[in-house]
């Protein structure tokens, strides 16, 4: 049997593919005592789910790398919080107050929530709370601290010395009009504290200073070190790689055309361009890009209000190079698919386990699932029972699975609470029942009769056989039209669980009454 490392060296799971490519880069030298992974965060708005996904996916590659190599690893989460606030986010309080601080570094803009010393500090804290919820191992680095503490000074002085080479890279990517005023250095005004987008009169490589007109006719000369200036975001990207010695960073497709710029600036500043992975963007309900400033799409808190953390990790693992829509209806499916993957894990070969999402979510040691029924079925149960608290669902769950209780099945208990909340907030307000067709009415009346006369077991598969038989004998072609009718007429839903399992959970007598009530409506 192949060892774990041998299996990982041929696994087709994307984290292992990225890890193997990174190992080749590291082995090609120069020698390092650790491998540095980095993710970046722009705290101009509240952290969104895409930011979390970037850290999660990078962590998955980091874990994969640690399987195939003994070289120590680090993960740095870098917040560009010295960036000037260019617009007021749409999803925060006190927008008028924020407008007074446009172009100021995010770590000097007052916190509109009134909780932290600045808006940047608030958003950094939100990001760290989200990441800590998932147990990530990372080092947090604030750009404000990085610039002002002197950690970036050597790289900034080199940027002044090699200013022309950096500008040559940047100017190729700019329109002619923008070329006339562009500089890779952005001075921070000593009086107003604003980040200035102004042309520079001089970059003095010997003194490590820049001279500029602040727009009022006054000239200023500032050192490039100590946080008196910051780099424009594209040069900052590459300069950070050089200063920190970054070996791997992933970013969204919207950055992909900038890769030659980032790489080139990193190399001009004496660094070695890292490996990168470009992932597709997350889309909102309308197919638009998720934006921090707009607040569209799901937030991490919103997802976790309706499902456990593992389901979100499962969603993030799937096809990172394919654009994915993120809306409420993706949550139930990912909950159930995650638990299916967990249940299948123990019987898989080592090679299959490495290709299973749950290996990457749990570092090779996924827990057992205690979901005795799918989450989708809990949702349907909450719907037909009109549940307002999870104890309503437990009345049915105890009968269906007598060995289960909130104490012995905490995951199921949490899912029951999530299902009730999801039903109340996202199903009930828009739920629509429809009247049955003549063929559906006849078949449902027949189903009720057969259930009433059924004297066999209430095993889900046996009940499913009855449902299948009714659909076949009443001529539904394709048979899925029969199940679609059951869901839309009885449950007010377009999709649903295996109906035999639902009958077993809800109860035969209760299902008969449900059919009679819906047919009489």
Automatic annotation (TrEMBL):
Gene3D superfamilies recorded: 1.10.10.350, HUPs (3.40.50.620)
Main localization (coarse): cytoplasm
Motif 'HIGH' region positions after renumbering to this chain: 43-51
SUPFAM superfamilies: An anticodon-binding domain of class I aminoacyl-tRNA synthetases, Nucleotidylyl transferase
Molecular-function GO terms, alphabetical: ATP binding; lysine-tRNA ligase activity; tRNA binding
Coiled-coil ranges (or none): none
Annotated transmembrane regions: none
InterPro entries for this protein: aa-tRNA-synth_I_codon-bd_sub2, aa-tRNA-synth_I_CS, aa_tRNA-synth_I_cd-bd_sf, Lys-tRNA-ligase, Rossmann-like_a/b/a_fold
Membership in a protein family: Belongs to the class-I aminoacyl-tRNA synthetase family.
Protein name per UniProt: Lysine--tRNA ligase
């Amino acid at each position: 049997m192949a060892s774990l490392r041998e299996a990982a060296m041929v696994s087709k799971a994307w984290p292992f593919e990225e890890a193997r490519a990174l190992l080749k880069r590291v082995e090609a030298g120069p020698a390092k005592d650790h491998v540095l992974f980095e993710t970046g965060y722009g705290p101009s708005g509240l952290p969104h789910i895409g930011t979390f996904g970037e850290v999660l996916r990078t962590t998955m590659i980091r874990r994969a790398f640690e399987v195939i190599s003994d070289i120590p690893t680090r993960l740095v989460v870098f917040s560009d919080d010295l960036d000037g606030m260019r617009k007021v986010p749409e999803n925060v309080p006190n927008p008028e107050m924020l407008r007074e601080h446009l172009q100021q570094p995010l770590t000097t803009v007052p916190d509109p929530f009134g909780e932290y010393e600045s808006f940047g500090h608030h958003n950094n804290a939100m990001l760290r709370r989200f990441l800590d919820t998932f147990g990530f191992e990372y080092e947090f680095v604030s750009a404000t601290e990085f610039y002002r503490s002197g950690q970036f000074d050597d790289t900034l002085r080199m940027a002044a010395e090699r200013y022309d080479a950096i500008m040559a890279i940047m100017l190729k990517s700019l329109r002619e009009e923008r070329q006339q005023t562009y500089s890779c250095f952005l001075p921070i005004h000593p009086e107003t504290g604003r980040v200035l987008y102004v042309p520079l009169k001089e970059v003095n490589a010997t003194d490590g200073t820049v001279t500029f007109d602040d727009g009022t006719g006054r000239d200023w000369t500032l050192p490039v070190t100590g946080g008196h200036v910051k780099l424009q975001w594209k040069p900052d990207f590459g300069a950070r790689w050089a200063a920190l010695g970054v070996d791997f960073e992933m970013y969204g497709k919207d950055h992909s055309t900038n890769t030659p710029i980032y790489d080139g600036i990193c190399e001009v500043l004496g660094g070695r361009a890292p490996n990168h992975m470009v992932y597709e963007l997350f889309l909102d309900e309308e197919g638009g890009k998720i934006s921090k400033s707009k607040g569209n799409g799901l937030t991490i808190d919103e997802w976790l209000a309706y499902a456990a953390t593992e389901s979100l990790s499962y969603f993030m693992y799937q096809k990172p190079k394919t654009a994915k829509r993120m809306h409420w209806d993706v949550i139930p499916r990912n909950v159930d698919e995650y638990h299916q993957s967990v249940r299948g894990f123990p019987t898989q070969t080592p090679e299959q386990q490495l290709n299973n999402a749950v290996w990457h979510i749990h570092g090779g040691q996924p827990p057992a699932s205690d979901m005795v029924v799918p989450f989708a079925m809990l949702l349907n149960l909450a719907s037909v029972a009109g549940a307002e608290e999870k104890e309503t669902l437990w009345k049915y769950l105890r009968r269906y699975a007598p060995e289960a209780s909130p104490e012995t099945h905490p995951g199921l208990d949490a899912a029951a609470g999530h299902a009730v909340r999801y039903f109340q907030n996202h199903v009930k307000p828009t739920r629509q029942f429809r009247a049955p067709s003549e063929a559906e009415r006849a078949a449902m009346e027949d189903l009720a009769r057969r259930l009433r006369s059924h004297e066999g077991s209430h095993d889900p598969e046996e009940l499913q056989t009855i449902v299948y038989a009714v659909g076949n004998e009443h001529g539904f072609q394709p048979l899925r039209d029969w199940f679609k009718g059951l869901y839309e007429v009885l449950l007010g839903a377009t999709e649903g669980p295996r109906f035999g399992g639902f009958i077993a959970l809800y109860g035969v007598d209760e299902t008969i009454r449900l059919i009679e009530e819906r047919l009489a409506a």
